[in-house]
Amino acid sequence: KPAPATFTVQFEVSHTLPTSDLNSIDTLKAFCVKQKDGKAVFRFALHIKDASSEVDVICHGKVAEELLGMAPQEVSTSVAKCNQALANLKEYNSAGAVCEGKIRSVMGKDERVYFVLLSMFCITS
Fold first, then answer.
1. Residue 52: Cβ within 10 Å count
2. 28 sits in which H/E element
3. Contact, 118 vs 102, CB < 8 A?
4. What are the backbone dihedrals phi and psi of residue 100, each rounded to the nearest 5 degrees, phi first?
5. DSSP one-letter string for 58-119
6. Strand partners, 58
7. What is the pLDDT, as a whole number, of residue 112?
8. For each of the chain's 125 residues, which pLDDT tens digit applies?
9. What is the pTM of this model?
10. Which one of 35, 78, 90, 115 is most buried, counting C-beta atoms within 10 A?
11. CA–CA separation, 29 vs 59, rounded Å?
12. Cβ partners under 8 Å of residue 99, min gap 6
């Protein structure tokens, strides 16, 4: 369908963007960006694929926080939360893991179509 549209799809996650070491807290630091107001937010992408195609899906804001199980402010204050977030990423990225997610296509100012993750959970791991 033309953008904007919402899809529910089953897929595998092949990697993150930026590319990450799922054993390093530095990965979570790389996922954090500062907004103009100085507040930190998560912003990264998942490269997903199914039988018909592959696409990068943007993860940001509350969806990224739910996916990781932590707030961006906790990256520098809670090693335990960071380790759990990395474990969550490993589960999504593990070989044979199938996830289901709701994805929204949006038209960017540059006239390109982007895909944004609205929700996601693992069906199998």
1. 6
2. helix 25-31
3. yes
4. -125, 135
5. EEEHHHHHHHHTS-GGGGGT-HHHHHHHHHHHHHHHSTT-EEEEEEEEEE-TTS-EEEEEEE
6. 45, 116
7. 94
8. 778 999 999 999 999 999 889 899 999 999 999 999 989 999 999 999 999 999 999 999 999 999 999 999 999 899 999 999 999 999 999 988 999 999 999 999 999 999 999 999 999 86
9. 0.90
10. 115
11. 15
12. 10, 11, 12, 13, 48, 92, 120, 121, 122, 123
pLDDT at 125: 60
What amino acid occupies position 89? Answer: L
Please give the structure tokens belonging to residue 117.
């993750």
Distance CA 96, CA 14 (A): 10
Residue with tokens 């390093």: 24
Residue 101: CB atoms within 10 A of its CB come to 23
Can you read off the two tokens belonging to residue 92? 């999504």
